[in-house]
Structure to design on (1300 residues):
């Protein structure tokens, strides 16, 4: 073949082109990396360059909320810092988010940096635009614009047109419900600018043509720079050419009129075009460029800022209210309210100025500017190479939390007073330096006048999905569609507007914290303690709209789950589920709707409990003069406060109110009083039993009655004291709503549960109750149930019957078995497992046992000193009372015993209560019986002791307990009959006699005794009264000092008392690189006698803390044991590891506070906690030292000599053990008291190693060959054993002890 075929040539071409492109790309990347490596050696900022040619431009320009810096900058700043390198807009770029560097770049314009906008921008703006030109030409053009703007911003003619166009635009809104505000603002600013610059009236055709061309012109800024026919960029270039032609036509007309000396200038005289035409130094293209630049600034930046202000004001009701106040005051201060605004009025718009400045900071109309380094620039330690682009990011410094407190919050107050100058240095909305926007002040005047008419004429609301986006210029998704309505002359009736500030405050706090890193626990505390408490005051007086509560829930949910500036994160659970209590699987947050109702119900409760209060009398006179609050109606023309109170009453109070002693409903023959014996104030038992069923009669007879005729009263059902509390009201409202919404009844069991009982052949559902698998399963189950025992019953009915027959543990087995069946069904259906009913039953039982082991909490019984009964003071009597209650039989008993100052029992009462309501009921009955006994006996000074603290507090503090309210009324009345009464709470050990009497009365044996005809009636019906002889009085309690007196007498007579055991000790400790090492000898001496050769002097304090003790052995052991138990209780309470400083505090406080040296306990404390290793010494008088090594005891000096000569930082474990061993041995060999062996304890993080008898330096080597012989012991002559039961009568009483 002489050549290649066309097909083969095309194939080779397709193979070679990608290869060549790849090689070229690799070469470009390699060259770029080499250049960057050379520059990096010159302190180039860190960063990434992205792809060749495109770099990271697309990621940089990604749309985001204009009130944030965007994901690109956030990620790069967190990774590289506030200054980093990148490749943007086709050039290597230094991106600066640092305020100091930004100001450095702006202030060195034309010295070190110059403007460098992308070339496509030049094609639209033209070569004479203020944005693109530099040097003398820029200064000349800018000075012309500045001089005209400075002279015209206070011109009455200009101010008149601002107001006229503002009023005209708002008049056009009349009758409209929605307005596209961004479009309206752009049209407004363009008409105003064209009128002021070119004297073209808005109604002229030329004005409409300019507006249309300018809109096309602006669309080119955000389009791809492709100059092809039909593209937005090409249309923008043509639109600019048409705009240039229009301006030039106006210029020609002006020049012609100027050339006619006999004609006067028309209405265009004195405008901007006339001013620059008089400048002979400018050519036509320069004039056109400066005119279009000023129109561009007015059209784009001013209108965008107006839209941002409207957006932020809607979300900031507080700022909007202050703005209205300011403009209303300006309007009222004018002699003629219809008069036009003047320059002096603008000077009074201080808060408007703050709103505009804050909107510029939060909205970021200009995100960044383009600059280029014209030489190598050194800024601090960073290098900016010549020719590199520099992008000062204004948004980053505006939203920097280091510069602004809560930067995401719209807060105009940050610009007030002395803060204004400081804020001006931190905020650069329109650049700075030589290129500071010349029309910034003019824009503020225009916006201030416009806001004056807007806030006084209209109220508005933005769409929920509307927000400003940086793209890269600020845009609104729907052009800021707002709902408008005329503003009322007085106060707004919109609840959303009235209470909107509540949500704003919550958002303000949440946004401030969102910038910080918070743990889940921290967020929970902030939500519960701060955010949810903000609306408390408002919600206690007004019912917030439901949509506002939902909006608050949304804000809280966003804060809880986290969000960023570009969107919220996934909410894994709804807010309603998070509001469920923790005990039910939620987080325990508040549902604002229910909480609002609970707070309103609190106000209603106060109206009921305090009818004499001023507000209660005022409301009664206006709304319910002929009835009470519970039966009041809404009435005509009610206030919002009254309607809110009725909501709290109807939704919460009425569902939890209970009335005591109210007449029976639904009967005309019988009344409640007919069921009582009005003389004895007791229930007529036979009448109640005759009229009601057995269960109803028992419930009625258990209701305690007062012997005094008291008025009915209302009580709150969800609180044991009967008092309404917001917490109980909230839970009552929540549970009531859950019930009203409906819980699916058991009869509506779904099909899936129908298939739970039988699993057969892996089918999806098996309704056969005689399924062989189910029968085998229930047969091997400990319950031995037969699912086919009820042939006509449904699954729901079968489960109901089984639940009625089972109780307690059996129910747990039953439901776990059902769950096992359902799990096995799923395994068969979805995983294809085989079914083994026998193993299913075993697995269910094993699962239940494992569950119990995990969830059964360790019950720790608190050790406390055993209490004993003590005699009352002279001429007083003490009455001990107690009650007992059997819940399963609903019976009880009361016990009372009265004793005098010598402990002699005067009266004992044991009474059976066949109708008992609760343990509290029995305690109250016992207290009432004791007071009656004292009154009948004529005692004037008494003390009453009970082990029920709740009841005593209710009596002492005039409190209430709902279930025994009637008895408490009697008791308070009886207490007034005594000259002196002392109520005291004691432990059950000190109330033993009354407790046993109550339990005896509760038993069935006493029940039979109580029914015998020999029942005593001296005191109370159904009671047993007895007296004890003086010989039967138990010995008095207290301390006995007989042995102390005996020892003092023996010492006085010269008898030497045996000495107590005292240690001759060497104890040491040191810190090594991984923890603490403690050491001690093992000899205990009593004078010159060795009492114990191998005692333990290293005591356990906590798993991570040990302590060496010197001094008196009994003291060291007692002190360390006591503190060890306190540390254990502290760990149970906190659930955290004990800290060494906690043990140190307990020890030194105990030794100093109570004994101050009288307890001979010198201690070396060591341990390791989460803060590291610690070593302390505690002296007997309570002083402490903290050292890297320490010694104590009689051999401490010898041991210290070893430490001082050989200790060093960073000892290893083996070196530390060796050094501690040497120190103890030094004490053993040099101290007369120390001796025997060496004990070592090594404590590290999460571990301890106890080396008992690590070294025996003085082993015993000699043993006497002779055997030791002892004298003959005393022989036992006789033995007699007396059974205890012959002397003590034991009464076994069934049931459990009564619990409070």
């Amino acid at each position: 073949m002489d050549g290649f075929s066309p097909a083969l040539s095309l194939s080779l071409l397709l193979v070679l082109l990608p290869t060549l492109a790849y090689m070229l790309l690799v070469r470009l990347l390699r060259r770029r990396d080499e250049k960057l490596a050379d520059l990096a050696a010159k302190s180039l900022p860190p960063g990434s360059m992205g792809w060749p040619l495109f770099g990271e431009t697309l990621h940089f320009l990604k749309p985001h909320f204009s009130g944030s810096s965007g994901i690109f900058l956030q990620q790069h700043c967190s990774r590289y810092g506030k200054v980093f390198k990148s490749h943007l807009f086709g050039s290597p770029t230094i991106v600066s988010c640092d305020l100091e560097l930004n100001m450095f770049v702006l202030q060195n314009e034309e010295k070190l940096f110059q403007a460098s906008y992308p070339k496509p921008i030049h094609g639209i703006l033209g070569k004479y635009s203020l944005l693109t030109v530099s040097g003398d030409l820029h200064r000349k053009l800018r000075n012309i614009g500045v001089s005209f703007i400075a002279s015209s911003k206070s011109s009455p003619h200009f101010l008149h047109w601002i107001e006229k166009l503002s009023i005209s635009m708002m008049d056009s809104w009349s009758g409209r419900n929605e307005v596209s505000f961004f479009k309206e603002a752009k049209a407004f600013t363009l008409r105003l600018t064209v009128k002021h610059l070119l004297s073209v009236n808005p109604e002229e055709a030329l004005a409409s043509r300019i507006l249309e061309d300018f809109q096309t012109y602006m669309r080119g800024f955000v389009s791809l720079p492709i100059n092809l026919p039909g593209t937005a960029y090409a249309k923008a270039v043509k639109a600019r050419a048409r705009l240039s032609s229009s301006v030039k036509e106006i210029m020609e007309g002006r020049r012609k009129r100027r050339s006619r000396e006999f004609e006067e200038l028309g209405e265009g005289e004195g405008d901007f075009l006339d001013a620059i035409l008089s400048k002979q130094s400018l050519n036509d293209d320069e004039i056109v460029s400066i005119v279009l630049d000023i129109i561009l600034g007015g059209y784009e930046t001013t209108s965008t800022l107006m839209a941002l202000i409207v957006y932020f004001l809607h979300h900031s009701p507080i700022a909007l209210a202050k703005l209205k106040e300011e403009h209303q005051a300006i309007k009222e201060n004018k002699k003629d309210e219809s008069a036009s605004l003047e320059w002096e009025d603008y000077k009074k718009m201080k808060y408007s100025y703050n709103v505009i400045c804050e909107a510029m900071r939060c909205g970021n109309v200009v995100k960044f500017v383009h600059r280029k380094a014209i030489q190598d620039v050194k800024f601090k330690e960073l290098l900016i190479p010549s020719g590199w682009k520099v992008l000062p990011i204004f948004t980053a410094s505006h939203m920097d939390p280091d510069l602004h407190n809560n930067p995401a919050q719209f807060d105009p107050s940050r610009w007030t007073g002395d803060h204004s100058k400081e804020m001006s240095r931190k905020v650069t909305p329109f650049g700075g330096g030589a290129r500071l926007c010349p029309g910034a002040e003019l824009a503020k005047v225009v916006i201030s006048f416009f806001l004056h008419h807007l806030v006084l004429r209209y109220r508005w609301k933005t769409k929920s999905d509307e927000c400003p986006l940086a793209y890269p210029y600020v845009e609104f998704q729907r052009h800021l569609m707002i709902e408008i309505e005329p503003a009322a002359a007085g106060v707004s009736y919109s609840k959303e507007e009235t209470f909107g500030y509540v949500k704003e405050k919550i958002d303000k706090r949440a946004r401030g914290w969102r910038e910080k890193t918070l743990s889940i626990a921290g967020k929970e505390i902030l939500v519960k303690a701060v955010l949810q408490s903000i609306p408390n005051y408002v919600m206690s007086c007004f019912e917030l709209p439901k949509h506002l509560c939902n909006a608050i829930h949304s804000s809280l949910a966003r804060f809880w789950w986290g969000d960023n500036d570009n969107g919220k994160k996934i909410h894994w659970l709804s807010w309603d589920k998070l509001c469920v209590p923790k005990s039910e699987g939620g987080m325990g947050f508040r549902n604002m709707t229910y909480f609002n109702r609970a707070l309103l119900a609190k106000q209603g409760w106060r109206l009921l409990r305090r009818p004499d209060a001023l507000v209660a009398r005022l409301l009664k006179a206006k709304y319910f003069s002929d009835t009470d609050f519970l039966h009041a109606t809404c009435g005509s023309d009610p206030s919002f406060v009254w309607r809110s109170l009725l909501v709290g009453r109807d939704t919460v109070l009425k569902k939890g109110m209970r009335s005591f002693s109210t007449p029976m409903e639904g009967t005309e023959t019988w009344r409640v009083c007919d069921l009582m014996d009005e003389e004895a104030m007791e229930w007529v038992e036979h009448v109640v039993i005759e009229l009601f069923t057995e269960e109803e009669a028992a419930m009625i007879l258990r209701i305690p009655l007062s012997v005094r005729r008291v008025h009915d009263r209302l009580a709150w059902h969800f609180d044991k004291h009967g008092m309404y509390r917001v917490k109980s009201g909230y839970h009552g409202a929540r549970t009531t709503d859950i019930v009203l919404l409906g819980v699916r009844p058991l009869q509506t069991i779904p099909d899936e549960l129908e298939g739970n009982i039988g699993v057969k052949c892996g089918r999806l559902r098996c309704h056969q109750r005689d399924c062989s698998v189910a029968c085998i399963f229930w047969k091997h189950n400990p319950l031995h149930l037969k699912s086919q025992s009820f042939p006509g019953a449904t699954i729901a009915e079968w489960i109901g019957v089984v639940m009625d027959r089972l109780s307690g543990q059996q129910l747990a087995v039953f439901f776990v078995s059902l769950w096992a069946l359902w799990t096995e069904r799923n395994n068969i259906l979805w995983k294809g497992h085989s079914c083994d009913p026998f193993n299913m039953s075993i697995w269910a039982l094993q699962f239940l046992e494992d569950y119990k082991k995990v969830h059964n909490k360790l019950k720790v019984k608190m050790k406390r000193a055993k209490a004993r009964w003590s005699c009352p003071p002279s001429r007083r009597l003490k009455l001990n009372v107690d009650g007992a209650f059997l819940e399963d039989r609903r019976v009880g008993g009361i016990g009372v015993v009265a004793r005098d100052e010598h402990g002699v029992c005067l009266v004992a009462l044991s009474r059976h209560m066949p109708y008992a309501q609760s343990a509290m009921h029995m305690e109250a009955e016992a207290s009432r019986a004791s007071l009656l006994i004292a009154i009948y006996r004529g005692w004037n000074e008494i003390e009453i002791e009970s082990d029920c603290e709740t009841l005593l507090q209710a009596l002492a503090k005039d409190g209430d307990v709902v279930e025994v309210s009637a008895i408490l009324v009697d008791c308070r009345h009886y207490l007034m009959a005594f000259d002196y009464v002392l109520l005291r709470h004691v432990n059950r050990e000190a109330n033993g006699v009354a407790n046993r009497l109550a339990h005896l009365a509760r038993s069935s044996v006493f029940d039979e005794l109580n029914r015998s005809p020999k029942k005593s009636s001296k005191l109370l019906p159904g009671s047993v009264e007895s007296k004890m002889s003086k010989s039967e009085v138990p010995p008095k309690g207290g301390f006995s000092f007989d042995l102390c007196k005996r020892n003092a007498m023996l010492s006085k007579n010269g008898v030497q008392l045996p000495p107590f055991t005292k240690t001759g000790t060497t104890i040491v400790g040191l810190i090594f690189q991984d923890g603490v090492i403690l050491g001690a000898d093992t000899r205990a001496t009593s004078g010159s006698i060795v009492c114990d050769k191998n005692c333990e002097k290293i005591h356990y304090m906590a798993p991570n803390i040990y302590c060496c003790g010197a001094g008196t052995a009994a003291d060291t052991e007692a002190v360390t044991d006591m503190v060890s138990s306190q540390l254990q209780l502290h760990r149970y309470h906190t659930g955290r590891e004990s800290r060494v400083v906690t043990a140190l505090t307990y020890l030194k406080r105990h030794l100093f506070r109570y004994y101050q040296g009288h307890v001979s306990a010198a201690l070396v404390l060591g341990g390791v906690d989460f803060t590291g290793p610690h070593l302390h010494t505690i002296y007997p008088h309570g002083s402490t030292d903290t050292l890297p090594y320490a010694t104590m005891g009689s051999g401490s000096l010898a041991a210290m000599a070893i430490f001082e000569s050989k200790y060093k930082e960073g000892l290893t474990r083996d070196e530390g053990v060796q050094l501690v061993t040497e120190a103890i041995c030094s004490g053993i060999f040099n101290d007369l008291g120390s001796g025997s062996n060496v004990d070592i304890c090594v404590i590290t993080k999460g571990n301890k190693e106890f080396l008992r008898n690590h070294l025996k330096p003085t082993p015993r080597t000699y043993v006497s060959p002779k055997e030791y012989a002892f004298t003959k012991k005393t022989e036992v002559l006789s033995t007699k054993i007396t059974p205890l039961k012959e002397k003590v009568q034991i009464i076994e009483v069934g049931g459990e002890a009564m619990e409070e």
Notes: The chain has a mean pLDDT of 77.
